[in-house]
Amino acid sequence: MNRHTGFRGYPTVRGRTRRVMLGVTATVAMVLGMAGMGAATAAADTVIATIPVGVNPVGVAITPDGSRAYVTNLNGATVSVIDTGTNTVAATVPVGSPFGVAITPNGAFAYVTNIGANTVSVIDTGTNLVVGPPIPVGNAPQGVAITPDGAFAYVTNQSDGTVSVIDTGTNLVVGPPIPVGANPIEVAITPDGAFAYVTNINDNTVSVIDTNTNTVAATVPVGIGPIWVAVTPDGSRAYVTNQSDGTVSVIDTGTNTVVETVLVGSNPQGVAITPDGARAYVTNFDDGTVSVIAIEKCLGSLCLDFGSLTGSGSGAGSVFS
Questions:
Q1: Which residues contact 3 (CB under 8 A, 6 or more apart)?
Q2: Nearest 5°: phi and psi at 151?
Q3: pTM to 2 decimals?
Q4: Which residues lie across from 230 on neighbouring strands?
């Protein structure tokens, strides 16, 4: 383990508590759109809600229909279920210690990283039984993501600075591990399956893996302590949480450059994006909250935060609960 990580590989860095309170309304955004004003005057990606959840929230996943966000509260031993229509907690589910997991696109199998054992377990979701022996990977595996066609699972090996690739048909590791940055934590794959984005927490970068060659095609400098990453459904942006400076870096996947930095809460961890690409949900570990970011959409020179115009929010760039 490195100085950034603690219990079972999860970060314990503490930061100062932040809340973003901005007052731009949905009416302003709508007027800007109708007036045809350009990107220079339109609102950027902003937090539109902060939702209290459980103790030390880490992971977050959103249902395929976008109606619910599931948040794992590491030290609360619970899962908070957020109604994304109202941005309120609809239920709190008691569980054991929740860890990261990736589910195959057909929903048949769950791949779980075993940080202490340096293996990945495969669970049959129909029976909730482990299938076959654990798969040996690198040292301290943490993040896992599965390609859209379900053929491969990409696993970050935190202590090795590598990524292992598992053939889900045979459940064997294929090829040598892929060298990335210092202490890789999480991984997300673009919707077309062409690239895997890996956060390297100890060198403040994101490695972009070309999945055709399984080599690093680009290295993107981001904020301090990047930990989690999610890609928008259209593949145009990657959202990276930076735990040590309380921000989210927005990467343009076309140029692999950071185009925006969004202030969120203290020690942000998990990030997930709604299926319509309108909002990003970010867990703030120290605050016990979730920040909701309205994702900016651009049509030519016109850019608007469409996520703030849906649901029950008070408007673009505003915070509501």
A1: none
A2: -80, -30
A3: 0.74
A4: 239
> Which residues on neighbouring strands pair with residue 228, listed in sequence order?
241
Is residue 20 predicted with pLDDT exceeding 90? no
Q: State residue 185 phi and psi, 5-degree precision.
A: -115, -60
> Phi and psi of 146, rounded to 5°?
-115, 140
pLDDT in tens, 189-248: 999 999 999 999 999 999 999 999 999 999 999 999 999 999 999 999 999 999 999 999
CATH class of 7-309: mainly beta
Structure tokens at 136: 């040996």
Per DSSP, helices labelled H in 118-196 are none
DSSP string over 195-207: EEEEEETTTTEEE
Query: What average pLDDT is seen over the chain?
Result: 79
* Nearest-angstrom CA–CA distance, 164 and 50: 35
Which H helix or E strand runs over 156? strand 152-157
Residue 229, beta-bridge partner list: 240
Tell me the backbone φ, ψ of residue 96, rounded to 5 degrees. Answer: -85, -160
DSSP 79-95: EEEEETTTTEEEEEEE-
Q: Is 311 helix (H, G, I), strand (E, B) or coil?
A: coil
Q: What token pair was written down for 3?
A: 């100085």
What whole-number distance in Å separates Cα of residue 132 and Cα of residue 166? 14
Spell 289-310 as b/e; 16+ CB within 10 A means b: bbbbbbbbbeeeeebbbbbbbe
Question: Domain ranges in the chain?
Answer: 7-309
DSSP 24-71: --HHHHHHHHHHT--TTTS--SEEEEEEE-SSSEEEEEE-TTSSEEEE
Instruction: Using pLDDT thresholds of 50, 70 and 90, give the confidence band for residue 52.
Output: very high
